[in-house]
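Feature request, filed as a ticket because there's no other form

It would be nice if the structure record came with a short human-readable summary line next to the tokens. Right now we just get the raw output. Example of a typical job, pasted below so the devs can see what we mean:
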Amino acid sequence: MKNLSKYTVIGLLAMLLGMTSCGNSKSDTSENKEANSEMKKEHSEGEAEEVMLTAKQFDALKMEIDTLQMRNMSGYVKANGQLEVPPQNEATITTVVGANVVSIEVIEGDKVNKGQTVAYLSHPNIIQKQTDYLNAYSNSQFLKKEYERQKTLYDAGVGSGANFQKAEAEYLASRSMVKGLEAQLQQLSINATGVRNGTIYQRVSLRSPIEGFVQKVEIKTGQYVEPQTDLMEIVDTHHVHADLMVFEKDVYKVKEGQKVSFNVQSIPGKELTAEIYSVGKTFEQNPKAIHVHAEIENKEGNLIPGMYIQGRIQTDNAKILAMPESAIAADGNRFFVFSSEKEGDNWAFTPIEIAKSNQDGEWIAIEFLTEQKSNIKYAFNNAYYLMAEMKKGESEEHGH
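Raw output as currently delivered:
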């Protein structure tokens, strides 16, 4: 019994030693895991997120690298409108007498010179005016001779004063009538001298009063047109300008001499510039806005009155940090640019958070959230690609 008790005690001691050893082993393992985890965490936090590009990738993406500089950025007012021409550069062609259209010499889009014939008209009324003028002229010539005869008699003291005065009045009245009919013939582009020489013109020409392009033709051959009917429209597009509408809240910011950048919908990708030369003084009521007229500086393409435009009026200038829009990438509601550093043949790009401000064309004013060294170089393009590569690297790391 004593020996059995001895063996039993020894066995119990061995079991206790084993359990203690096992417990220490588990504790060591747990502590090791925690230590390793902490080391990994510190290592991860210590590393800056970055994107690596090989020299080949760098060249293929045509990366642009440069240091930041202060840029002259403009505040601006958005304004939409359309292309217009001044009233003196538009013309409507009409006729002063009712007549039939004999022929039309132009079509819409044709360029015409000042005084060029655009159509011919014919009607008995036109022939009648020439006949009336010829009769009035002949009668005036007769009365002129009678007036001169009576004046000679009156000056010699052998003629009646009453006869002289009557001859004078009749002659002056006839002369006025001739001049009036002659003016009417000029409006019809009829040569009065030719009529006096016996020529009766069967048709008359309609002439363009300005140089420009035919915008509308509203007649047909053979059509009878009433006096003062609009027959054609001519527009001189050399003086086409930007007519912008500025809303009431922005009127105080706009003045003559300011620059305007605008786009025409029919010329995609092309930015035109203009300078304000006139600011309206009365409001349009619907919408409540004023007209602002700007002379176009780089007229290109086929600019036609009535084309819709979208513009930005530059209102003030300030030198601030700015980067191209292609140098800024978004990550949710946060925005980043990428600093760049060459490592051997490769390039390392590190994201730096910024705040965006005003935009002037493709340039955006920025402000760094942390202080940056002045000699750092940045990627000026492909920011969205760099952000996508960085996100892809994060996903692969998390998956691993």
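Something like this underneath would help us a lot:
The chain has six helices and 22 strands.
Helices lie at 2-46, 55-60, 124-156, 161-187, 192-196, 383-399.
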